[in-house]
Amino acid sequence: MSPRTADTAVAVHPLLAERWSPRSFDASHTITDEQLIALLEAARWAPSAGNLQPWHFLVGRRGDVTYKQIFDSLKPGNQLWAGTSSLLVVAVAAERYADGTPHHHAAYDTGLAVAQLALQAHALGLHAHQMGGFEAEQLRSVLGVPDGHRPLSVTAIGALAAAELLPPELLARETAARERRPLTETFYAEGWGTPLPVRHDG
Ligand SMILES: Cc1cc2nc3c(=O)[nH]c(=O)nc-3n(C[C@H](O)[C@H](O)[C@H](O)COP(=O)(O)O)c2cc1C
User: Fold this and answer.
1) Which protein residues are within 6 Å of ligand 1, measured from CB?
2) From atom 9 of ligand 1, which residue's Cα is the shortest distance away?
3) Coil, strand, or helix at residue 29?
4) Total structural domains in the chain?
């Protein structure tokens, strides 16, 4: 069990327990077409309200123009590490129904599609790191995202590299223990705040 593995009360699927969001990506790694298509298929087959699939993705491969445009939109703290990933993927939600009224589940559905993509990355022996730290308006304009569509996240995907390759300020975060709020503070029954009465200590 890797030190990055989630500490769970009972075992969960290894894909879930072992997924994590690294910053150290291998700058020499390239993704194969087969791997890329597997990632896209994993996202495409996510569930969505009414099967409306209110998601679109813009995909940059390291070295191409799209990757550079996506990278340039990242906040400085993310630019410190994300440029060695093999892919940068922008998830965009279509926020309106065809008749123009707001689609309130668009972000929910798009997040589900990204979750599937991230887990497929892990299943392929790759890693994914989602980011909200980017300039959405910059991306919208440079990549021609139409009105009514909102860039929600950028996901860096690639092969893991040694943590020691990171700048010192990122090394500690890369190796810090992964943590979550306890089950008791997250899952309720009989009203808000009353913990669901299940064993939670493993
Ligand atoms: C919507 C979203 C936005 C995030 N934004 C950033 C970000 O801008 N920069 C960053 O380094 N990590 C970002 N993360 C990664 C989270 O910090 C990370 O998932 C969280 O700390 C849990 O760590 P784990 O994924 O390794 O379990 C983001 C994750 C999500 C889902």
Assistant:
1) 20-21, 78, 130-133, 153, 178
2) 131
3) coil
4) 1
